[in-house]
Design a protein that fits this description.
about 30% helix; about 290 residues; Enolase-like, domain 1; single chain; alpha+beta; binds flavin-adenine dinucleotide; Uridine Diphospho-n-acetylenolpyruvylglucosamine Reductase, domain 3; five-stranded antiparallel beta sheet
Length: about 290
Amino acid sequence: MFDIKQYEKAESVKDAVRLLSENPNAKLISGGTDVLIRLREGHSEYSELVDIHDLEEIKGVSYTDTGDIEICAATTFTEVVDSEIINDVLPVLALASGTVGGPQVRNVATIGGNLCNGAVSADSLASLCVLDALLITESAEGEREIPIIDFYLGPGQVVLGQTEILKSIRICLDNYAGYGTHYYKYAMRNAMDIATIGCAAAVKMDDGKIETLKISFTVAAPKPIRAKTAEEFAVGLEPTEENIKKIAKQVMNDVTPRDSWRASKDFRLHIIETLAERVIKHAAEDAGGES
Ligand SMILES: Cc1cc2nc3c(=O)[nH]c(=O)nc-3n(C[C@H](O)[C@H](O)[C@H](O)COP(=O)(O)OP(=O)(O)OC[C@H]3O[C@@H](n4cnc5c(N)ncnc54)[C@H](O)[C@@H]3O)c2cc1C
């Protein structure tokens, strides 16, 4: 059923880097929920595998000494959804992670695989973009930190080199403390469907006005985006219904959705504006602002 020509089980991240260096055709497999589907479809580029599934070294969620959050790449979505730390301080990520597939998929699918797969519909993406996540990788060349917004080159393409492994996702204290957040996934079905549009927002309030708005979309452009025009427009506004509608209109300057069999461009534009309003409103309320 699966045409696997070579399979190696890595014992550590360093071992996985070594195995990838020794075989330029080798690709990583973690939970396998994307890789195995591709293999079954006959994509031969996944026929030589280095398995990092269940490597303890890259599992789990923890605080660093400085209050940042470190989410290891091989943490499954079930573990993310159940994590006390994530629920306490990054509820937007718990919300988004809970929309991935169904329970069986979430039990094996990892957050690292979700990002490295490069799908612009990935459900963890929009929330990690408004949290300004940093991706920590290791390769034959050493370690590096990549801001999530720079990680995507286009549909299905990320900046990872052939020997590069995503080890963890870091959310700095300044990027979560004091923010109200929300995520909404619009899909044709309520479960087991990928996003037609995904939208996350993070709002910080000061004296009843929006001090900072971060708003991100998936499937609204060839790469995940932050709606910078809308973010700048929102600064200093009270989160009233009227103002939120105006901010949502500004989002139209930042998005470039396309027609696909899943939804037309016009329908996506309508969804984008509607979701922007809904998500900003909830995030502002969560941050203590009236709307
Ligand atoms: C039935 C079904 C429903 C689904 N529903 C959704 C959904 O609703 N929302 C959604 O976002 N996704 C969905 N998916 C897609 C999939 O489950 C996710 O993208 C998943 O998070 C991928 O993680 P994984 O560990 O299974 O990755 P894998 O399949 O193991 O790997 C995916 C890709 O990432 C690379 N990779 C994996 N880990 C690393 C790492 N640490 N460093 C570098 N590269 C790495 C692999 O080489 C491969 O290219 C669904 C899949 C199925 C089968």
